[in-house]
Amino acid sequence: MTYLDYQATTPLAPEALDAMLPWLRDQHANPHSPHAPGRKAKAAVEVARGAVAALFDGGGQVAFTSGATEALNWAIQGTTGSIVTLATEHAAVLDTVAAMAARGRKVTVVPVQPDGLVDLAVARAAIAPGTGLVAAMLVNNEIGVIQPIAALADLAHAAGALFLCDAVQGYGRVAIPPECDLVAVSAHKVHGPKGIGALWVRDGIRLAPLVYGGGQETLGRSGTLSPALCAGFGTAARLMDERRDTDRIHVATLFQGAVDRLARWTINGALDSRYEGNLNVRRDGLDVARLMSDLRDIAFSAGSACASGSGRSSHVLRGIGLSEAQARSSIRIGFGRYTGAQELTEAIDRIMATAALQRIAA
């Protein structure tokens, strides 16, 4: 199996697994207990917290969560005032703000341009004084474009609002602007385990609880933490920091080779403002479902894994102006640290050859 779906999830780093195993096999203490085994578990959690926090620009607090979806929900529901966000955000943001709108909270969804980037003039008009929260994704999970987060945060602050950054796809890969007030991240997108994420909150900001029942965690989040998941996340974060340049060069090399081979395909989203481990391309008339069926030993995607069973075309691709047919003829190829150059080349060649057979058959 050739795995090319890094935006859905990344392979678990062997080092992260090794860090988790002792806590899964031998250590069972509750990290919130005061006895010696509990304190040992707590110490492991705090080491992991420090590693996760090290990728932020100093200060602030990191609270572990069950994942980025919880972190985003907490940040949105734990704040007050009207909300401004972008049309191409993840469902964890768009569905949550829709729920807030149903409860009477004002929500403005700002469109993006055909390259996937927000027009700052349009955003400025939407972020009016009195806005409570502005939420935007650093790296889009479907088309890889990098939004002007620092500029959006400045607009938010000028209006008296907080700025929430969904940094799930960019954490450890793209610098998180220090202007952010709240940042959501996920372990399994950075070669860590599933089931854990984090919310970074700037010092001085207080959030209303999302879940009640003990307030064991930093910032009052309730629930018992898993030392194993924390250890895996911490190790994965440390590796992202240590391997940042090596991973970046590797991904850039893979990206250029892929783009060269897919020269006759159209790339969705901006080319000059993107994370290069995400390549979303289309070929008019392509039957993506048939392509995926014919290439079952290559794992690639037709869009976000979170919406894969909905039957809907990508809201991100429609948001950049693609027709329904164009959106449904697009595929996402995601690669990274553990992808080999020859492996990627061979997979792309097979994708192109199989797509070409469709045109011949048509």
Structure commentary:
With 362 residues, the chain is α/β, with parallel strands linked by helices. The protein folds into two domains: 2-9 and 244-361, Aspartate Aminotransferase, domain 1 (Alpha-Beta Complex); 14-242, Aspartate Aminotransferase, domain 2. Helices cover 39% and strands 14% of the residues. The strands form three sheets. A seven-stranded mixed beta sheet has the order 2-8-7-6-5-3-4, sandwiched between helices. It has a three-stranded antiparallel beta sheet with strand order 9-10-12, covered by helices on one side. The protein has a two-stranded parallel sheet with strand order 1-11. α8 (244-261) packs parallel to α12 (341-361).
Shape: globular
How many domain modules?
A: 2
Percent of residues in β-strands: 5-15%
Helix count equals 12
Task: Name the quaternary structure.
Answer: single chain
Rg estimate, integer Å:
21 Å
CATH architecture of the largest domain: 3-Layer(aba) Sandwich
**Which segments are poorly predicted (pLDDT under 50) over 5 or more consecutive residues?**
none
Separation of the first and last Cα atoms: 28 Å
